[in-house]
TrEMBL record:
<dbReference type="GO" id="GO:0000272">
    <property type="term" value="P:polysaccharide catabolic process"/>
</dbReference>
<dbReference type="InterPro" id="IPR013830">
    <property type="entry name" value="SGNH_hydro"/>
</dbReference>
<dbReference type="GO" id="GO:0030247">
    <property type="term" value="F:polysaccharide binding"/>
</dbReference>
<dbReference type="InterPro" id="IPR018366">
    <property type="entry name" value="CBM2_CS"/>
</dbReference>
<keyword id="KW-0326">Glycosidase</keyword>
<keyword id="KW-0119">Carbohydrate metabolism</keyword>
<keyword id="KW-0624">Polysaccharide degradation</keyword>
<dbReference type="InterPro" id="IPR036514">
    <property type="entry name" value="SGNH_hydro_sf"/>
</dbReference>
<keyword id="KW-0732">Signal</keyword>
<protein>
    <submittedName>
        <fullName>Lysophospholipase L1-like esterase</fullName>
    </submittedName>
</protein>
<dbReference type="Pfam" id="PF00553">
    <property type="entry name" value="CBM_2"/>
</dbReference>
<keyword id="KW-0378">Hydrolase</keyword>
<dbReference type="Pfam" id="PF13472">
    <property type="entry name" value="Lipase_GDSL_2"/>
</dbReference>
<feature type="domain" description="CBM2">
    <location>
        <begin position="253"/>
        <end position="359"/>
    </location>
</feature>
<dbReference type="InterPro" id="IPR001919">
    <property type="entry name" value="CBD2"/>
</dbReference>
<dbReference type="InterPro" id="IPR012291">
    <property type="entry name" value="CBM2_carb-bd_dom_sf"/>
</dbReference>
<dbReference type="GO" id="GO:0004622">
    <property type="term" value="F:phosphatidylcholine lysophospholipase activity"/>
</dbReference>
Length: 362
C-alpha cells in the first residue's frame, strides 16, 4: 500500500505559502474552486502461498514493470507486508507460506482478508501446497469456486486472474510434478464455467516455459530467473485489466463498458521459429474504437514480425501490437486477427500469454 502522507505534508505548507504571497496582491482563489480529486487507485491483491509471499519477489518485478508502463494508479493490497526483495515496490500481499487453498476455503478465512483490503482485482497463484499434500484435483477446484464466490460477495465486479501453477519437482514428492500438471489441465475449463460478464475469471499460463531446474532454487520456489518469468506472464493480463478499467477505478467502465479479448493460435513451426495468429474479439455491447494486444511469448521466444497490426517490443521480449487503423473498429461480437512470426531458442511448442485492451481510434 502506497504511503501518500509525506506528499500531503509537503503540499499543505506550500499551499499556505502561496496564499500568503498572493493575498497581499489581491489575488485569491476563485469562489467555489477546488483541487481536482485524486484518482482512486485500483487495488490488486496477490493471493496464494509462499510462492506469492515468502518473499514472492515476482511481485516486485511486476510492480515496477507496471509503473514503467505508466500504470501509476495501482495499490497492491493484502494483510501481509513486504518480506524484502532488495528493490522498492508496494509489498502488501496475501501470500501465506504453507497455506492450502482448500484450507482457506474450508475455514472461510478469505472474507476477513477481503474486508480488510477491499481489492478490485485478485491475482491468484494458489494450490501448490494442496498438490504437495495429495489433495484431489476435484477438491482443489471446488475450493477455487468457493474462493471466487467469497471474492464476489466482497465485490460483485471482482476481476480474477488465476494461474496455471508453475511446475514443481521437490525432492520429497516424486508424484507432485504430474499432479500439478493434472490440476493445470483442468483450470481453463473451470475458469470458463466460473467466469461471468460482470466478474470475469482469466487464466494466466505460468506453467509453459518454466523450468524447475533453472527457475527455482529447490524445485518449488522461484529464483530470480523464475520471478522474472512469473512477472512477465502476469503483466499482459493485469495490464489489460488496468487499461480496460474497473468499476470505480481510474478509467473504470460503467454498464456497457468496452471490453475485448485476445486468443493465441499456433499456425506452423520450424527449427528456431514459428508462425501464429492472434484473434481479437469485441465482447462488449457497443462498437470498439480500437485495440492493443500484449503478447508475452514462452521459452524466450521473441516476436520479430507482425501483419495487420503495428509492433513494439519491450526489452524482456513482451510485444505490444496495436491495430492497423483499418481493423481497429469492431462491432459488438465482431473479431479480427493479426499474424506474427517469432524466433525461439527452444524446441518446445509455440505458446504465448496474450491480453487485450481497448484504445481510442487509431
Amino acid at each position: 500500500m502506497r504511503d501518500t502522507r509525506l506528499l500531503r505534508l509537503r503540499t499543505l505548507p506550500l499551499i499556505g505559502l502561496l496564499a500568503a504571497l498572493l493575498l497581499p496582491l489581491g489575488v485569491g482563489l476563485a469562489p467555489g474552486a477546488a483541487a481536482a480529486p485524486e484518482a482512486t487507485p485500483v487495488r490488486v491483491m496477490p493471493l496464494g502461498d509462499s510462492i506469492t509471499g515468502s518473499p514472492g519477489c515476482w511481485r516486485a518485478v511486476l510492480w515496477n514493470r507496471l509503473l514503467e508502463a505508466g500504470h501509476m494508479d495501482i495499490d497492491f493490497v493484502g494483510t501481509l507486508p513486504e518480506q524484502g526483495c532488495g528493490v522498492a515496490h508496494d509489498g502488501d500481499n496475501e501470500g501465506h507460506g504453507g497455506e492450502l487453498a482448500t484450507h482457506v476455503a474450508d475455514q472461510d478465512l478469505l472474507p476477513a482478508r477481503l474486508a480488510a483490503t477491499r481489492p478490485d482485482i485478485v491475482v491468484m497463484h494458489f494450490g501448490t501446497n494442496d498438490v504437495w499434500s495429495s489433495v484431489p484435483t476435484d477438491r482443489i477446484l471446488t475450493a477455487y469456486t468457493e474462493l471466487v464466490a467469497r471474492m464476489r460477495a466482497s465485490n460483485p465486479d471482482m476481476r480474477v486472474l488465476v494461474a496455471q501453477l508453475i511446475p514443481m519437482n521437490p525432492s520429497t514428492c516424486a508424484a507432485c510434478a504430474q499432479r500439478v500438471a493434472d490440476l493445470n489441465a483442468r483450470i481453463p475449463a473451470w475458469a470458463a464455467a466460473t467466469s461471468t460478464t460482470r466478474s470475469p475469471v482469466t487464466v494466466v499460463d505460468q506453467w509453459t516455459g518454466f523450468d524447475t531446474a533453472t527457475d527455482t532454487y529447490d524445485g518449488v520456489h522461484p529464483n530470480a530467473a523464475g520471478d522474472a518469468k512469473i512477472a512477465a506472464r502476469w503483466f499482459p493480463a493485469l495490464a489489460a485489466l488496468l487499461e480496460d478499467g474497473v468499476p470505480g477505478g481510474p478509467g473504470g467502465p460503467g454498464d456497457g463498458g468496452l471490453v475485448c479479448t485476445a486468443s493465441f493460435r499456433a499456425v506452423s513451426g520450424w527449427q528456431g521459429g514459428y508462425q501464429a495468429e492472434v484473434t481479437v474479439r469485441n465482447t462488449s455491447s457497443a462498437p470498439l474504437p480500437g485495440w492493443r494486444v500484449t503478447v508475452a511469448p514462452a521459452d524466450g521466444a521473441r516476436v520479430t514480425q507482425v501483419w495487420n497490426g503495428t509492433l513494439a517490443t519491450a526489452a524482456d521480449g513482451t510485444a505490444t501490437v496495436t491495430d492497423a487503423g483499418w481493423n481497429g473498429t469492431l462491432a459488438p461480437g465482431a473479431s479480427t486477427a493479426f499474424g506474427l512470426i517469432a524466433t525461439t531458442p527452444a524446441t518446445s511448442a509455440p505458446a504465448a500469454t496474450v491480453g487485450c485492451a481497448v484504445t481510442a481510434s487509431s
